[in-house]
Amino acid sequence: MTEQAIIEFKNVSKQYPNGFMGLKDVSLQIHPGEFVVVVGLSGAGKSTLMRSVNRLHDVTSGDILIDGDSITKARGKDLLAMRRKIGMIFQNFNLVKRASVLKNVLMGRVGYYPTWKMVLGLFTKADKQRAYEALQSVDLGEKAYTRADQLSGGQQQRVAIARALTQEPRILLADEPIASLDPETTRKVMDDLKRINEQMGITVLINLHNVELAKEYGSRIIGIRAGHKVFDGPVAEATDDVIDAIYGEEEAPS
Ligand SMILES: Nc1ncnc2c1ncn2[C@@H]1O[C@H](COP(=O)(O)OP(=O)(O)OP(=O)(O)O)[C@@H](O)[C@H]1O
């Protein structure tokens, strides 16, 4: 018996309103606990793929299943419940700069409260505890009351990771999370993601430009080129020839 995929793309295509095809007939399955790195040239469709998973982008055709349920077709409360399972971090951190680190991390609980409680900032003790614990897990417990914009870029990204963890997700999407960071902080963020994957069993899907880091941290690589999936396999199979085919100069498939 094969284990149920936590993320499944079935013949997914995405056409932007201007007619450009961001994804072309992509099918894939990701299983619980995997650490999958998506690589490809700038503009290949990596972010489009990532943002389709939690419906930051709607796809044009095909279906995306989360734990076997279609997120493509989900509406209202069902969509909200599915999105709770999916945390996300971004290249530019997306923190509320003038708010404290703790407030930012608590935002990870937004999907669990009605709007009026959020407006009044009425978080439960249990949620505050969750937020502290998430901050501690990225080694930033002592920064809880610091304003987010007082932290370094690497620290801000780790606050964003803590915010995603507070959501108690099963999947973590990371869209170019280290693109704005220097090499040293890059490692710290990647190490945090790896630890979260291994110790908490959270499935990680991450876009990276850097193939070396993709090979070092990933268990599996997906290569995207001009909207097509052109490679999907374990890191050991991502040979130089494979990487050349993902990044190379020759004509991309249409
Ligand atoms: N809203 C949009 N309308 C039209 N085209 C878009 C839109 N968003 C993205 N695209 C195009 O879709 C293609 C894929 O974009 P995407 O951001 O997914 O690429 P990427 O592989 O993540 O690139 P990068 O590494 O530079 O972020 C690009 O050619 C981009 O210009």
Automatic annotation (TrEMBL):
SUPFAM superfamilies registered for this protein in UniProt: P-loop containing nucleoside triphosphate hydrolases (SSF52540)
Pfam family, one: ABC_tran
The keyword Cell membrane appears for this protein: yes
Domain ABC transporter residues, every copy: 7-251
Any one GO MF annotation of this record: ATP binding
Keyword Signal: no
Keywords assigned: ATP-binding, Cell membrane, Membrane, Nucleotide-binding, Phosphonate transport, Translocase, Transport
Domain of life: Bacteria
PANTHER family assigned to the protein according to its UniProt record, in alphabetical order: AMINO ACID IMPORT ATP-BINDING PROTEIN, PHOSPHONATES IMPORT ATP-BINDING PROTEIN PHNC
NCBIfam families: ABC_phnC
Protein name: Phosphonate ABC transporter ATP-binding protein
Organism encoding this protein: Lacticaseibacillus pabuli
Gene: phnC
